[in-house]
Amino acid sequence: MSYSTAKVVKVLDLSPERIRQLECQGVLKKVHDREGKALVGRLSRNNVGKIKLFLVGVDTAKDVVYGRLKIQDEGAGYCHFSAHYDDEFFRQLTAEQRIEKYHKGYLKREWRKVRARNEALDCRVYALAAYALLNVNII
After folding, report:
1. Domain regions of the chain by residue span
2. I want to staple 118 with a disulfide (CB 3.0 to 4.6 A). Which of 26, 95, 106, 127 is the partner?
3. What b/e string do you get for 88-118 counting C-beta neighbours within 10 Å, with b at 16 or more?
4. Which position has the higher pLDDT, 84 or 27?
5. Would you state the pLDDT for residue 3?
6. Could you tell me the pTM of the whole model?
């Protein structure tokens, strides 16, 4: 998997010096979107800037998020939402769908966007990964 420091700098709108200051906190991440990967992988410094990064299994995280959205009874895993969220938030939260297709005889599952904006889903995925880094039993 390739990694570009410039891409992370652009996304976070931070200078390279600020990124190096944040490295001790381990707040930056690589995205790892293959099925079956751990929600949060081990710490890695295998990149151009030698910055601490955690691999995030986004496919696994999206499976967890969508699985929890299906829970209708309050209890373990049930998602509670504030009343101030508008319809756009929920459209963004459900902006992707999982499709299954066969490639060279093997079943391949992947997430495809069905709407242009999916920031709410991405935020939920990274919040779940950050929570997992705290070693709290969430799954």
Report:
1. 5-133
2. 95
3. eeeebbbbbeeeeeeeeeeeeeebeeeeeeb
4. 84
5. 36
6. 0.69
- Environment class of 130 (CB within 10 Å of its CB; exposed 0-12, middle 13-18, buried 19+): middle
Measured in whole angstroms, the distance separating CA 8 from the mean position of its chain's CA atoms is: 15
Residue corresponding to tokens 């030698």: 50
pLDDT (0 to 100) of residue 9: 34
Structure confidence by residue, pLDDT tens digits, 58-103 = 888 999 999 999 999 998 889 999 999 999 999 999 999 999 999 8
Ordered DSSP codes for 80-99: P--TT--HHHHHHHT-EEEE
Question: What is the mean predicted confidence (pLDDT) over 18-27?
Answer: 53
Q: Mention every residue, 6+ apart, whose C-beta is less than 8 A from residue 107.
A: 100, 101
Radius of gyration of the chain from Cα atoms? 17
Query: Whole-angstrom Cα distance, residue 73 to residue 93?
Result: 19
Beta strands (DSSP E) in 48-117 are 53-57, 96-103, 106-113
Classify strands 53-57 and 28-32 as parallel, antiparallel or unpaired: parallel
